[in-house]
């Protein structure tokens, strides 16, 4: 059990002293009650942040003021971080940001949390404190808002996405009907949130071990279209096959690949999506490479694949291959052609994994030296010789390419 961890025991002992009270809160309690691994341990306390810092310092424990304004101090013990947050209650909210006040009221702190399964505490001896009737929901794996669902969503619209994310992670059966209805009614409010919060939450949802069911319910509630209109005429049917393939081939689940499985490979639309949700440059680039990579032909030769790798990079092509492989696997049970194609995709995927981009042996200086005047023509000539070199499967070496360059410059044997 997580509360026998000596570092955690020390932190709890330190804070449950001289009139202070502290309990493990939120995700750590939820996961341990569900028998799932606990990632990080958050602690709630009646002590003010300054008092937490003071006590930590006196005990020689490192205290980092990670979010003093929200009441959070991170204590680091034996290399493990513990986020300690002073009890809070909501003062006011505009649906995007809540103004909070520190307090000493456990009930108020529990009630400002989103879901019943996320609002349990565990005292220093491991006793679970349930102020929102969360234990039965843990037992039945019901994802349920605390209090009135619509009111809780009006306080913070991101809770719509959290509802589906936690359903994807921990829910069983159907989502709570009242919560689902409230999310459907409030879907338009998602557009008021900052893109960063929406994307970060969407990514977590897509990263769940199996987001398939949650995505279906999101689509049904109209929430999926509100966040990702690109999925509308495309669909989420590819998700189960992708999850199966991930398991079968041991691929690390990748939220971006899962996103690619449910949106059309259209560079322009994906560019707009990346802007709208403020994807990182790296994420946007991966989606763009994927969309610009060509479909994998059923009998693609390895040499032809190397040329594609050179032109489109391994990232976009591996997305193409993985999605093609997943769908071929799904069809393959009854279709020998699909099975053969799946085999090809697997080989090409392995090839893409170890591929290193060959260096083109010529550069601009060579073109200038061959007598082309400085200007846009230099790049054009270089690009066309590079294209020829790629078409020839990178076989020509520098000496041969220099001869070819001379031919081109003299107009003896122009490029096609
Ligand atoms: P994990 O970190 O494993 O994804 P978690 O439960 O720790 O799950 P966090 O997003 O880290 O989730 O939030 C910690 C706790 O803070 C939650 O368990 C919940 O009680 C509360 N919380 C977080 N975000 C909100 C929110 N938007 N509205 C209400 N409560 C929230
Ligand atoms: Mg957490």
UniProtKB/TrEMBL annotation:
Residues 179-233 form the tRNA nucleotidyltransferase/poly(A) polymerase RNA and SrmB- binding domain. Coiled coil: none annotated. Its EC number is 2.7.7.19. Residues 22-144 form the Poly A polymerase head domain. One of its GO terms (molecular function) is tRNA binding. Its cofactor is Mg(2+). Pfam families: PolyA_pol, PolyA_pol_RNAbd. CDD domains: NT_ClassII-CCAase. It comes from the Bacteria. This is Poly(A) polymerase. It comes from Shinella fusca.
């Amino acid at each position: 059990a997580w509360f026998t961890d000596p570092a955690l025991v020390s932190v709890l002992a330190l804070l449950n002293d001289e009139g202070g009270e502290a309990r493990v809160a939120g995700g750590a309690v939820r996961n341990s009650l569900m028998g799932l691994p606990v990632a990080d341990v958050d602690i709630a306390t009646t002590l003010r942040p300054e008092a937490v810092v003071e006590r930590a310092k006196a005990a020689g424990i490192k205290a980092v003021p990670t979010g003093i304004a929200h009441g959070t101090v991170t204590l680091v013990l034996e290399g493990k971080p513990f986020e300690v947050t002073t009890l809070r209650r909501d003062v006011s909210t505009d649906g995007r940001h809540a103004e909070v006040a520190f307090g000493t009221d456990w009930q108020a702190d529990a009630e400002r949390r989103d879901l019943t399964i996320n609002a349990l505490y565990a005292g220093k001896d491991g006793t679970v404190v349930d102020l929102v009737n969360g234990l039965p929901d843990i037992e039945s794996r019901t994802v349920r808002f605390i209090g009135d669902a619509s009111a809780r969503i009006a306080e913070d619209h991101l809770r719509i996405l959290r509802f589906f994310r936690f359903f994807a992670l921990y829910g069983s059966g159907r989502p709570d009907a009242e919560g689902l209805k409230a999310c459907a009614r409030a879907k338009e409010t998602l557009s008021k949130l900052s893109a960063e919060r929406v994307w970060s939450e969407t990514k977590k949802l897509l990263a769940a071990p199996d987001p398939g069911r949650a995505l279906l319910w999101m689509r049904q509630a109209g929430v999926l279209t509100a966040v990702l209109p690109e999925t509308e005429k495309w669909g989420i049917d590819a998700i189960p096959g992708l999850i199966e393939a991930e398991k079968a081939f041991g691929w690390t689940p990748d939220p971006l690949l899962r996103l690619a499985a449910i949106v059309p490979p259209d560079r322009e639309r994906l560019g707009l999506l990346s802007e709208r949700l403020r994807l990182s440059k790296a994420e946007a680039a991966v989606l763009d490479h994927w969309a610009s990579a060509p479909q994998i032909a059923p009998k693609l030769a390895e040499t032809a694949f190397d040329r594609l790798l050179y032109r489109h990079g391994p990232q976009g092509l591996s997305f193409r291959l993985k999605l093609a492989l997943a769908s071929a696997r799904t069809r393959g049970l009854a279709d020998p052609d699909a099975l053969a194609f799946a085999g090809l995709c697997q080989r090409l995927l392995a090839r893409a994994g170890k591929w290193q981009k060959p260096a083109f042996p010529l550069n601009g200086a060579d073109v200038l030296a061959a007598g082309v005047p400085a200007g846009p023509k230099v790049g054009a000539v270089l690009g066309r010789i590079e294209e020829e070199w790629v078409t020839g499967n990178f076989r020509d070496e520098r000496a041969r390419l220099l001869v070819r360059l001379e031919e081109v410059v003299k107009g003896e044997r122009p490029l096609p």
